[in-house]
Design brief:
This protein is α+β, with helices and mostly antiparallel strands and 169 residues long. It is built from five helices and eight strands. The chain has one domain: Aminopeptidase (3-Layer(aba) Sandwich), CATH 3.40.630.30. The chain is globular.
Length: 169
């Protein structure tokens, strides 16, 4: 089910058939470093991740992470979407792409479209984002999206602090 389209991308709901792609993405060194280890090591782990992550989020909140696909080639390149974390008051926008698709504007293009969808279709007025302090490329995208650094926060108790970005006033 396609949720959002841009000139170059389609963002659709993640399906169990996407397990092999997510297994690859979630084990990229950059994903492990900047986002964290989700403990996904096998196709079965990836299917469980899909069931308890994106699919559960769609059911509970009506949104979640979406598979981001190059429109013309129909090649998955990453994920982008909305998350409602227990530890954050607001919904946050998140994304991750395979490294070979970095620096082509896909993160900004997909996140812009997801944020517009959140506001215009879902009625979510305030969207925030988080990033590790050393994820300079992602921080640049968040600032380009109109978000500004607000504070260093722990996402969960006893975790390293991350940067919280909120809408510029």
């Amino acid at each position: 089910m396609i949720v959002v389209e841009t000139d170059r991308l389609q963002l659709r709901r993640v399906e169990l058939a996407d397990a092999a792609f997510l297994l690859d993405l979630l084990n990229q060194p950059s994903f492990l470093h900047f986002i964290g280890d989700k403990g996904v090591r096998t196709l079965d782990d990836a299917r469980d991740y899909i069931l308890t992550g994106p699919l559960a989020s769609y059911e509970r909140f009506g949104f979640g992470m979406y598979l981001t696909v190059l429109k013309e080639e129909q090649i998955p390149i990453g994920i982008c979407g909305l998350l409602k974390r227990d530890s954050l008051e607001d919904v946050d926008v998140g994304y991750a792409f395979l490294p070979q698709f970095w620096s082509r504007g896909y993160a900004f293009e997909s996140a812009s479209a997801v944020m517009a969808y959140a506001r215009n279709v879902l009625g979510i007025d305030r969207i925030v984002a988080i990033a590790t302090p050393d994820n300079h490329a992602s921080i640049h995208v968040l600032e380009k999206l109109g978000l500004r650094f607000e504070a260093m926060i722990p996402l969960v108790d006893d975790s390293p602090e991350i940067k919280l970005f909120t809408p510029a006033i």
